[in-house]
Amino acid sequence: MNTSYLRTFIEVINLKNISKAAEKLFITQPAVSKQMQLLEKDFGAELFKKSGREIVPTEEGYILYKYAKSVLSEENKIYSLLRCEDDLVKGNLTVYTSSMPADYYIHDLIIEFNKLYPETTYVIKKIDSDMVFKNIEEGFTSFGFTGILSKNKKLKSICIAEDEVVVVASAEKNEEFKDRKIKAADLLEQKFIVREKGSATLHMFENYLNGKKIKLSDLNIVIQAEDNDIIKKFITNNLGLAVLPKKAVEQEINEIKAFILNVEGMNLKRKLYYVYQPDRYFSKVEEKFKEFMVERYKDK
Q1: Whole-prediction pTM
Q2: Where is each HTH lysR-type domain found (predicted)?
């Protein structure tokens, strides 16, 4: 039996879909199907069945899934012991990350990790925090970076940084807000530029509004965007107030193109996280990256 087929098998079970497993593993869909056929032939058992549009394991498939993760974990340990694998780690690391970690922290982590494992290649996909959690929970990836904690208790997290969500105004509004303050009720009179639904930044601001008995839909939202840099261009051109991470607007504030507006009762401190599912199978390079993250932030 080829143990690489077990890796493919695990991804098919995790993702409940052959084409998604093929995409994640960077192989063709027919190759995945062929490997699954060979596994069923080797074990003399049917390992899958259809449930609507999803592929789910049979009773025999569940048994194989349970032991396949253990087999691959032990295989990794054997390679590490016998071949000094730390010097031989190769492979692709796909990083799903929300905007803040992607824009301000991921590059430093990748540079540092690449010094240890220079043969690693990377794919970085910037999506919102909710989608990062969804990809982990559905098995499309083993880890990701987010701006909020998951409600799923199966997911573990490591804090990598701290930041604050703030309301930002264009420098052209200096006269309107001489004291740099605004009451919560007065937000209803302003135009707003905000992140898309699913964003951790917007989620935190919406919770603040709810505490003030204001619905997000009550605001005059003129623009919703998926990227902080786009929002900053709209701010500096005075198209409205914006809700952004403080770190994202440091340059604009230093250049006096924008300023932070102190909103009544709003203190939205937050943390950024490396999130992973410990009982999920990790490839060799994913396992090394997890060890790297745990070691790097062990005292935080």
Answers
A1: 0.66
A2: 1-58
3-state secondary structure 244-273: EEHHHHHHHHHCCCEEEEEECCCCEEEEEE
Domain final residue, candidates 84, 106, 123: 84
User: What are the pLDDT digits (tens) for 67-115?
Assistant: 887 787 777 667 666 555 555 677 889 999 998 999 999 999 999 999 9
Tell me how far apart the alpha carbons of residues 120 and 118 are, in angstroms, rounded to a whole number. 5
Write the pLDDT tens digit of every residue in 103-151.
Answer: 999 999 999 999 999 989 999 999 989 899 988 887 778 899 998 899 8
Burial (0-12, 13-18, 19+ Cβ within 10 Å), 266:
buried
Domain coverage including residue 263: 163-269
Residue 8, beta-bridge partner list: none
Report residue 81 CA to chain centroid gap.
Answer: 32
Contact 65, 13 (CB under 8 A): yes
Residue 181 has a pLDDT of 95
Radius of gyration of the chain (CA): 23
Last residue of a domain, one of 24, 55, 84: 84
Question: Which two structure tokens, joined as six digits, stand for 68?
Answer: 């396949």
Which residues are CB-contacts of 122 (< 8 A; sequence separation ≥ 6)? 92, 93, 94, 95, 110
Distance CA 155, CA 19 (A): 25
